[in-house]
Write a structure and sequence with these properties.
With about 425 residues, the chain is α/β, with parallel strands linked by helices. The strands form 4 sheets. A 7-stranded mixed β-sheet has the order 2-10-9-8-7-3-4, sandwiched between helices. A two-stranded parallel sheet has the order 1-12. A two-stranded antiparallel ribbon has the order 5-6. The radius of gyration is 21 Å and the shape is globular. Bound molecules: 4'-deoxy-4'-aminopyridoxal-5'-phosphate (PMP). The site of 4'-deoxy-4'-aminopyridoxal-5'-phosphate has 13 residues, from helix 4. Its cofactor is pyridoxal 5'-phosphate. It is an enzyme of class 2 (transferase).
């Protein structure tokens, strides 16, 4: 029955991680997988998560393992939407004609960011039938898998300029202006682009919003690093809020993940937010029903444990403050490692320009090594990174950063 299955590609970050685990070399370094690691190279449960867990497990709540609604935990969803769109903090610049900007957003809980991307793709594929989806080149590889499985034709736009090692604004605008059609979907990383760490500037975001508006494209934001990128959750949501509040983008999606910013990777906490036109009440009800129908047939409802942790933290001002402190701890350590790696390469006078290491933001950097160099560094130094040269900065620490810089220097010179 299964003897003629077509070959299926392995997921690279997970297979690189597997190879790293198998490696017994004492100096091995894992820069492959996108997870936060502390200074001693270990997973770091956020302190605020530990506090929330104590509160939750002390509660002796007999209902704690009950089913959620299909839509998910409603209190969690409202807090999650507030975090994305800035509702309820007095920071929204929504025009007065929209009485309650919340009424434009339908939110459902998902199996983390991947599930939100998948559900959104399924919603659009079945109901809007977009001509194609425009995926940044490069991107998080799973975007391709998700949209392939949703049966939507995939096209790419040239996201990265490898010469300037920054966002390719001209190439993106040119490609989308010339070739995108009404109702095509455009995948946008809301902040801390994975894998390049290069984001559009605010002016460039503004131009992208105008282009989407003018051409009737459907923006699909992937928000996997809010607060984790800069340490400031508002700043990292700027692009989405700009599309929503200032550009009045009529319809778009946001896939939100709490994997990185709460360190809840395996708990699978996320949400899909679908923005609709102002105050079209039936539309939001129908949309909600459609999403619930898709969820019911797929996984019935998302898991409750991790969402309860996030809800507990976001609902409590004191815990929220502690969360901001934890975000700062993570983002500052990553920043520090960017600077240390950069300084080490300068000290070694490694050929090349390494400024992008400190200019790019978030968890990842496109270090600028070729595939043969990546394979050589793995073979000789037991340092693991993706073939594209993407490195996860949080795999660096004071003990290994000198070794990594030396290895980069060596493969660059040979
Ligand atoms: N989108 C992007 C761009 C990501 O980098 C990730 C995590 N690697 C995700 C979505 C989804 O992660 P998760 O399913 O763990 O939320």
């Amino acid at each position: 029955l299964f003897s003629s299955l077509p070959p299926t590609p392995l997921d690279e970050p997970f297979s690189v991680n597997g190879a790293y685990i198998q490696d017994s070399h004492p100096q091995k370094v894992n820069l492959g997988i996108g997870v936060y690691r502390s200074e001693d190279g270990a997973p770091w449960p956020l302190r605020v998560v530990e506090d929330a867990e104590k509160e939750l497990y002390d509660a002796k709540n007999v209902g704690r393992h009950e089913y959620l609604a299909i839509q998910g935990d409603r209190a969690f969803l409202q807090l999650a939407a507030d975090l994305v769109f800035g509702f309820g903090k007095g920071k929204s610049s929504a025009p007065a004609v929209i009485e309650d900007p919340r009424s434009r957003v339908v939110s459902v809980q998902t199996v983390s960011g991947t599930g939100a991307n998948r559900l959104g793709a399924e919603l659009l594929a079945r109901n809007i039938r977009p001509g194609c989806v425009w995926i940044p080149d490069p991107t998080w590889a799973n975007h391709h898998t998700i949209w392939e499985l949703a049966g939507v034709e995939r096209k790419t736009y040239p996201y990265y300029d490898s010469v300037s090692q920054s966002f390719n604004f001209e190439g993106t605008i040119r490609t989308l202006s010339e070739s995108a059609r009404k109702n095509d979907v455009v995948i946008l990383h809301a902040c801390a682009h994975n894998p390049t760490g290069a984001d559009p500037t605010r002016e460039q975001w503004d131009a992208l919003a105008k282009l989407c508006n003018a051409k009737g494209l459907i923006p699909f934001f992937d928000l996997a690093y809010q607060g984790f990128a800069s340490g400031d959750a508002d700043k990292d949501a700027w692009a989405i809020r700009h599309f929503f509040n200032d550009m009045h983008m009529p319809e778009f999606c946001v896939a939100q993940s709490f994997s990185k910013n709460f360190g809840l990777y395996g708990q699978r906490v996320g949400a899909l937010h679908v923005v609709t036109r102002p105050a079209v009440h039936d539309v939001t009800q129908d949309l909600q029903a459609t999403l619930c129908h898709l969820i019911r047939g797929e996984y019935s409802m998302a898991p409750r444990g991790g969402a309860e942790i996030v809800r507990t933290v976001l609902a409590d001002q004191r815990l929220r403050e502690r969360w901001f402190e934890d975000l700062t701890t993570m983002s500052q350590r990553i920043q520090r490692m960017r600077h240390t790696l950069y300084d080490e390469l300068l000290k070694l006078k490694t050929p090349g320009d390494w400024k992008h290491i400190v200019n790019q933001i978030g968890m990842f950097t496109y270090i600028g090594l070729s595939e043969p160099q990546v394979l050589a560094i793995r073979e000789e130094y037991h340092i693991y990174m993706l073939k594209s040269g993407r490195i996860s900065i949080s795999g660096l620490n004071e003990r290994n950063v000198g070794y990594v810089a030396q290895a980069i220097d060596d493969v660059v010179r040979t």
